[in-house]
């Protein structure tokens, strides 16, 4: 049975949500709003049954990517818009009620922000069309100060259609505090650190090159911080790196997109570090499943077909469920996950939403 997107308001939020057992966690979903959706939606997700219950929503324009603050009390969500209207939004979040409270927004000064990360002191956005990284100091009350625009990417890849202008697709904090960003058009991963005194990013050069025409998209670290896994959009391949002091050393490149659709999307590591999952789109849409070997390299163990355009997905902290935002099917699919084999099984408890593109779970302590 499909779960309809019905939000039951204050009574549910203040009543039965408060009575949920510990296996219920909060979940926030970002959506594209071109078809009339609200933007942000909150749910309670039962980690024992895989069932989601709608709580609340908030009008935010095109929140295509979001992240929680470390304490979970604030959400930082991009509005993926053109240069003049693109912003990063700060939204208060009540972890008990699951409700939102808009705080403030600041211009990114870079078009189409599509990724955001924070270390609690600053927030960073990767601005796809702008080909830039924006830095936002975070004020004591959790709100955002004005952005400090940083140029980080270049054009020049061999794909004349996709790499003819600079694009930045992902920016994350490495386990050691360094900042890494994927230079989509330059086929590089760049490294920076933040100089708080001068309020700017300091350039530490190129962390790694990838094969020309790859279009590096999303980067994630293993739980132990020793390895990093890159999903490249154009090549549809996953690259495995070892990591130390802002430098990435390539260990392996392995295909995820066997349809060769140039649609590599998202990548995540299971909480126990034993498996890597990568989503691919445009043809043969689904999740490719890899087992992590002792040296950090990957072995493909399976694939799971999903709904259309699995742009983003998330794994619950207990590792039991994997949720896939299928943008073009207007649903989030809920898969149970076998912790020993890594394989997925559809629970058929779909969450119906208009153009879901980002799923995030409240950070558990």
From TrEMBL:
<dbReference type="InterPro" id="IPR011048">
    <property type="entry name" value="Haem_d1_sf"/>
</dbReference>
<keyword id="KW-0313">Glucose metabolism</keyword>
<dbReference type="Pfam" id="PF10282">
    <property type="entry name" value="Lactonase"/>
</dbReference>
<protein>
    <submittedName>
        <fullName>Lactonase family protein</fullName>
    </submittedName>
</protein>
<comment type="similarity">
    <text>Belongs to the cycloisomerase 2 family.</text>
</comment>
<dbReference type="InterPro" id="IPR050282">
    <property type="entry name" value="Cycloisomerase_2"/>
</dbReference>
<dbReference type="InterPro" id="IPR015943">
    <property type="entry name" value="WD40/YVTN_repeat-like_dom_sf"/>
</dbReference>
<dbReference type="InterPro" id="IPR019405">
    <property type="entry name" value="Lactonase_7-beta_prop"/>
</dbReference>
<feature type="signal peptide">
    <location>
        <begin position="1"/>
        <end position="21"/>
    </location>
</feature>
<keyword id="KW-0119">Carbohydrate metabolism</keyword>
<keyword id="KW-0732">Signal</keyword>
């Amino acid at each position: 049975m499909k779960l309809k997107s019905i939000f039951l308001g204050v009574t549910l939020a203040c009543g039965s949500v408060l009575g949920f057992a510990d296996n219920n966690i909060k979940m926030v979903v970002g959506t594209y709003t071109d078809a009339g959706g609200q933007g942000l939606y909150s749910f309670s997700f039962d980690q024992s049954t895989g069932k989601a219950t709608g709580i609340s929503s908030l009008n935010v324009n095109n929140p295509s990517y979001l992240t929680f603050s470390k304490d979970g009390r604030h959400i930082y969500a991009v509005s993926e818009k053109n240069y003049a209207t693109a912003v990063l939004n700060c939204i208060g979040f009540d972890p008990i009620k699951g409700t939102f409270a808009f705080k403030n927004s600041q211009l990114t000064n870079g078009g189409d922000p599509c990724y955001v990360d924070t270390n609690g002191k600053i927030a960073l956005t990767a601005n796809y069309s702008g080909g830039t990284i924006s830095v936002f100091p975070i004020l004591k009350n959790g709100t955002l100060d004005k952005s400090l625009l940083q140029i980080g990417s270049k054009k020049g890849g061999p794909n004349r259609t996709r790499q003819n202008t600079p694009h930045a697709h992902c920016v994350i904090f490495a386990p050691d505090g360094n900042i890494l960003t994927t230079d989509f058009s330059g086929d590089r991963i760049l490294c920076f650190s933040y100089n708080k005194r001068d309020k700017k990013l300091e350039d530490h050069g190129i962390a790694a090159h990838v094969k020309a025409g790859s279009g590096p998209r999303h980067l994630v670290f293993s739980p132990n911080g020793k390895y990093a896994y890159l999903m490249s959009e154009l090549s549809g391949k996953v690259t495995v790196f070892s990591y130390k002091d802002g430098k990435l050393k390539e260990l392996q490149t392995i295909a995820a997109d066997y349809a060769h659709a140039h649609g590599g999307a998202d990548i995540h590591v299971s909480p126990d570090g034993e498996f890597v999952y990568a989503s691919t789109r445009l043809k043969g849409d689904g999740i490719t499943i890899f087992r992590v070997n002792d040296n950090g390299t990957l072995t493909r163990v399976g694939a799971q077909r999903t709904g259309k355009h699995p742009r983003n997905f998330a794994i619950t902290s207990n590792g039991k469920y994997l949720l896939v935002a299928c943008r073009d099917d207007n649903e989030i699919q809920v898969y149970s996950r076998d912790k020993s084999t890594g394989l997925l099984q559809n629970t058929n408890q779909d969450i119906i939403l208009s153009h879901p593109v980002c799923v995030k779970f409240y950070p558990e302590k």
